[in-house]
Amino acid sequence: MAAPDGGPANGVTDMIWNAGPMVKLVLLLLVGMSLACWGVVLVKFKLFRRAERQSEDFYEMYRQKKNFGLLYRESQMLAESYLAQVFRAGYAEWGRLSKTLETVSLAEGPLNGADEALSTVEKAMEGAILLETRRLERFLPLLATTGNTAPFIGLFGTVWGIMTSFHHIGLKGAANLAVVAPGISEALVATAIGLFAAIPAVIFFNYFMNRIQAIQGHMHYFAGDFYTVLKREWFRRSAASTKNGTPEAPAVMRTTG
Fold it and tell me: Which residue spans traverse the membrane (predicted)?
C-alpha cells in the first residue's frame, strides 16, 4: 500500500515505501548509522564541555596553590579534567620517588639523579596524556567509519535498485520514462540518505579531532610547566643540602593539615 500523493515529502516517503527489500535494508542501516553518529556527537559535546570547564577550574587552582599535596587531594573532585589527570599522574610518580631522591648522595651527582628521577615523572605525565587523548577519542572512529562507508553503502543500494528496475523493465517489455523513472528515483534515495549520514559525520569528526589536538597542546604545555616546577624544586633542595649537609624533603611534597 502506497502513501497518499502530496508534496515532496510525501514523494520521498512513497519512494522509500515502494522500494525493494534490499534497498529498504540499506536505508535502515544508513538511518541506524546516522542516529548512532548523532548520539556520539551529543555525548562528545557534553564531554568536551565538562572536560574543558573542569580543566580551567583546575588550572586556576594550580596557579594559586603553593601546596601540591593539598591540590592533589582536591583534584580528585575534577575527574573529567584532563589537566588534573596529568598533574595527578606526575605528582603520584614524584611522591613514589621522593624517598629515593632524598637518599641521593651529592658525591654521586645530585643533578644526574634528579634528571633520571624526573624523567620517570615526565614519562608518567606523557602516559596520562596518552590515556586522556584516548578517552577523548573514544567512539570517534564511528564518525570516521560512517563518513567513509555511508556513501558507498548508499551507492550499493542505488545500484541494486537500478538493477531491480531494469529487471522489471525487461519483464514488462517497455522502456519509456514512465516505467524507468519511478524505479531509478527510488534507488537514488539510498545515495541521498548515504550522503545525509556521511556529511555530518565527516564534519564533526574533523571538528572533534581539531579540538583534541588543541587539548593535547594544552596538556603538553601544562606537563612542561609542572616538570619545570619539580626540577626547580630539586635544584633548590640540592643547594639546601649542600649548605646544610643534610638532605631536605622536597617542598612540593609537604602537606598541611
Answer: 25-45, 139-163, 187-209
If 0-12 CB within 10 Å is exposed, 13-18 middle and 19+ buried, where does residue 5 land? exposed
Q: What is the pLDDT of residue 7?
A: 52
More confident residue, 114 or 70: 70
CA 239 remoteness from chain centre: 44
The cell for 105 is: 648522595
Sign of CA dihedral 159, 191, 40, 201: positive
| Higher pLDDT among residues 223 and 20, named by residue | 223
Q: What does each C-alpha distance from 232 to 229, 236, 237 come to in angstroms? A: 5, 6, 9
Distance CA 46, CA 43 (A): 5
Q: How far apart are CA 46 and CA 36, in angstroms?
A: 16
Greatest mean pLDDT among 98-102, 121-125, 170-174, 177-181: 121-125
* pLDDT bucket at 2, cuts 50 / 70 / 90: very low
The structural domains of the chain, with segments of one domain joined by +, span: 22-98+112-253
Grid coordinates representing 125 are: 605525565
Cβ pair 184, 165 in contact under 8 A: yes
The answer to whether 84 and 60 have CB atoms below 8 angstroms apart is no
CB 205 within 8 A of CB 38: no
Assess contact for 86 and 123: CB atoms under 8 A: no
Which phi-psi region, left, alpha or beta, contains residue 4 (left: φ > 0; alpha: ψ -120 to 50)?
A: beta
- Radius of gyration, alpha carbons of the chain: 30
